[in-house]
Amino acid sequence: MASFKELGLSDEILKVLEELGFEKPTDIQAESIPLLLEKNQDLIGLAQTGTGKTAAFGLPLLERIDPNNKATQALVLAPTRELGQQIAEQLHTFSKYQKKVSVLAVYGGAAIVNQIKALRKPQHVIIATPGRLIDLIKRKAVKLDELQYLVLDEADEMLNMGFKEEIDKNLSYTPDDKLTWLFSATMPDEIKGIVRKYMDQPLEVKVNTKNEVNANIEHQYIVVRRRDKEEALLRILDSDPDIRGVVFCRTRLDTQDLAEFLMRRKYRADALHGDMSQAQRDKVMKRFKAKSLQVLIATDVAARGIDVNDLTHVFHFTLPDQNAYYTHRSGRTARAGKKGISIAFIGSSDQYKIKMLQKKLGIKFEAKEIPSAEDIVAKAVEKWCHEVLDTKTKGKLDDQLIEQANILFGNLSKEELTAKVLLNELQKLNIGSDRNLNDEFKQRGEGGRSDRGRGGRRDGGGKNKYKGKKKFDRSGRSSKGKKKNKSSGSFAKDAKNRYKRKKKKA
Ligand code: AMP
């Protein structure tokens, strides 16, 4: 594959790409950049989010801007504020050495006055959400009569969100001879309508359409009853403290409820949905990016285009109705060449949906077990013991304090002391109950009935072993998960293996 230099980019841009560690172009970049730099023709780019689309159109756009012309020369329309902000962030970075090129994002939910003020200065590239742009045009804060380049990013999503009229209106203020670059993950009929209406013999670039889903994602599913989903999520989060991800719900209310459930249990979680103010959403995203949140609970629309690197997991608390949404959701993980896991929480009668996704998206799902409370505890104990063993004490504690503790513990045997300290540690764990949460229906295959009946519990249920009176031991550990090369079938065991590998490396 050609290097960025061979694609025809300038030294200023090449320098930034090197600083960013972009070693080679992604497929969509390799195919689009030379066309967008050289050809004065419209272009349709079919690619998923997370494939490097922003640089694919952003780099040629920045190269084409004439910094000595103060007019707005390029407009990027994006479906959400978050995506608009992210595009602007990337374009600011890419234009680091093109000192005279100015880029501004305008979007609803933020004070329009500040945006109008910013627009008093020349802005060569404007990134906008469709509704806010109409407002600004009507207030004469934006003039598009010298526009040369229009980018419609995530065009399918803009239509899904009902922006058809706004797009028409915005485009009516732009000159006919501009170039239009349309990017979309899918090509539904409505997009074809836009292409017919607004584009002239467009070039077409398609990447990864056969297997649209990023190959670095491992797809998994668990079968769980609706009322056990929250607890199943806790178990998975507890099974590996390194998990960082997005949990998708279908409605704003579900999103809010689940986020509150997790927060009540002291998980570092928060919600992201359309009923929140822009300031609230910005705050949540800032915390998530800074890693002070472990999980973001989001609706499809609010999470659209979220570009946070290093997310290990995407959870589908409920599966989306459209296959394309599964792709968008799972694309929040495994970004920029990294690996990621996408886990669907499904009811026993939903297994046909997994089959359908496998067929339609050309992906393979692996069934997983929800970790048992014992799995989680065993892992926590092992981790804690290693931490204790690895703790360096020399010179860190006053001898008097050690002596004081030794006097107070004086009568305890090592076994008694270990038991007390261990129980103290385990009581900090957040295990709700030690029930088996795996829905046994699945043991009978699709749609089959378990002889326990719906909602049957295997093991008494409901009691928290560490906070209650029950004695803790490892005898209840599930021995079901057979050893496989890649994955054990159990989250807790996978996490444990990951931990061991990490330790070995260190
Ligand atoms: P996008 O699809 O534009 O949202 O990009 C997804 C992520 O990949 C972003 O974090 C980009 O910074 C990153 N990225 C884009 N192009 C490359 C590249 N050629 N090499 C490495 N990372 C990239």
What's the gist of this structure?
This protein has 506 residues and is an alpha/beta fold.
Detailed description of the structure:
The protein is an alpha/beta fold and 506 residues long. It folds into three domains: 5-206, 3-Layer(aba) Sandwich (Rossmann fold); 217-371, Rossmann fold (3-Layer(aba) Sandwich), CATH 3.40.50.300; 374-431 and 495-505, no CATH class. It is built from 18 helices and 14 strands. A seven-stranded parallel β-sheet has the order 3-4-2-5-6-1-7, with helices on both faces. It has a seven-stranded parallel β-sheet with strand order 10-11-9-12-13-8-14. β10 (269-272), α12 (278-289) and β11 form a beta-alpha-beta unit. α6 (130-138) runs parallel beside α8 (164-172) and α15 runs parallel beside α18. The protein starts with 10 loop residues before the first helix and ends with a helix. The relative contact order is 0.10. Residues 442-464 and 468-487 have low confidence and may be disordered. The chain binds adenosine monophosphate. Residues 22, 25-26, 29, 49-55, 307, 309, 335-336 line the site of adenosine monophosphate. Residues 22, 25-26, 29, 49-55, 307, 309, 335-336 line the site of adenosine monophosphate (AMP).
